[in-house]
Write a structure and sequence with these properties.
Length: 703
Amino acid sequence: MAMRGAHARIVFDLDDKMGESTCVACGECVQACPTGALMPKTSVGTQVVDKKVDSVCPFCGVGCLLTYNVRDNHIISVDGRDGPANHGRLCVKGRFGFDYASHPQRLTQPLIRKAGVPKDPAVVPNPADWSAVFREATWEEALALSGGALSGLRDHHGPKSLAGFGSAKGSNEEAYLFQKLVRTGFGSNNVDHCTRLCHASSVAALLEGVGSGAVSNPVNDVEHAELIFVIGSNPTANHPVAATWMKNAAQRGAKIVLADPRLTDLSRHAWRALQFNADTDVAMLNALIHTVIEEGLVDIEFVRQRVDNFEALKENVRGYSPEAMAPICGIPAETLREVARAFAKAKSAMILWGMGISQHVHGTDNARCLIALVSVTGQIGKPGSGLHPLRGQNNVQGASDAGLIPMMFPNYQRVDNAGAHAWFEDFWHTKLDAKPGYTVVEIMHKALAPDSDPHKVRGMYIMGENPAMSDPDLNHARHALASLEHLVVQDIFMTETAWLADVVLPASAWPEKGGTVSNTDRMVQLGKRALEMPGDARQDLWIIQQLAQGLGLDWHYAGEDSGAESVYEEMRQAMHGAIAGITWERLQREGSVTYPCLSAEDPGRPIVFDDTFATKDGRVKLVPADIIPANERPDAAYPFVLITGRQLEHWHTGSMTRRASVLDALEPMATASMSGADLAEMGLQPGDVVTLRSRRGEVALHL
């Protein structure tokens, strides 16, 4: 507040404009205001709502619980609920990113590509007017064409000729049923989703090292940590509510170490900010491990009882002293030693990371170093200590758990494991492919393979993914999608991927269906349907089942929300080693339950590895890592390093947030950030438009 008495008014910072202040537009002040002086604009004059529906935020992986306030089949405002992950808090996306579901560009009728209209990967689609490319169709016609074309390719060219991309933005039930369709209907394991381009490299290291690809403890366990090590993540933009727990911990005296080539907002709360040179993660992390071992800070008893391969790690990091690594990573040797000592000596220390660790050619090695650091110091398996790869999408954890990956059945059972393979053949009553399928990247390459390739991908079914916008090589991805003989896309908007489809199936937005999602904390949570779908759009589970029947599968899942409960209970059996005790009825009663949870009496285990790891022998396996140079380094032609990231107000390809009115108003443009020194040297000013070019393409952005 500024001024006094009758002149008092609300201001931002020192009476700055909102957009130029430190306000992040989360709306917490609006929810907390006891007098109604602050309230959502959409709620003014509409004190009465038709209904309040409890659900889960559909954006990042934190899994905030919320309540939709609905009037005339429109969400008019959102309130944060007191859920385990958020305790009433929401970020700007969760609180204000809701009206995309009612956007006029929603797909409301099945569409079929007009005869003779080519698929041009270079055309920029117009999502508001698709009439020159597609014609409306009935569901019967669209499903018959889709099922007939896909089954025809399968029967003529074999199961490997088909592939599917599922979604981490839908429910667990949709992910489970989608991968089951690909495996039993297409006949191969060519199924994947966005995890391949994000945390898959970390998951590989975690499965290898600790036997589980999920987190060891929840985000808000940072409240019990003396030291919080955040590396390769910008949580204030990517996971804003999670970042509030870190800030709260810092206020209580916890030390935050922020390791990132770019100084982010969290650095204002950090004890030490390690702005290391891009692509030198292994050098820096090995220097920390070297210090712990050299200075006698190893938890000897923990290593003796619970760690394998320590001697190999010790030998490997012998040459990675801080003094030797400082010129490589750009962090002074004494600072590296100071951080290593603080981490090892803390009563509890927790590591959280994001894409800055995973999205490298050495992403798995980066994660191996993190596993080694917590293992040699005994900082895992207790409150405030452990490993937490922050999951990006609202259900990327659940989609992976449900088997939406080419080498794993549900619950991470390898498809080439004879026992797991036999179990799922018996469970699904059909023969299954015993070889891992192609990944997202491999599928794109196989789509462009010559006709002579017996495993060329010729048809695809894509649900809730937009690879024509999210693939790391867009030109390659768009040509691959355009080359397919038949492409079926199931989505809520005419995305860049849908523009290249033969058939487009209008699906349901998150508030229009009920189902479960699993957040970054391994917490299964139930969302309930708040809205009816527009036009002739249908729920995703219904569409998957109809396509399955077109492929010769006799599926009939009964119940509300297209049989969500029936699908969940089948999935629960398939994942009995993780969620056997989390029944649908229990979720309706409790809302959120953490796995592993093996019985009705089991409260769930937020913290794992307290007495054993999930490996065969119960011990963590250390895997030494060495420096692997990047395939491309800055040179005279391309002198800058590009570090990708998110904007606070937006999410992934923007198909949802760019259609959320408040979010798009707050940040209407795609932007790039440069260091002040580079800006000055090039004579650029904030607001200028620059073109960023790589060897693969270019993009124009505002500074």
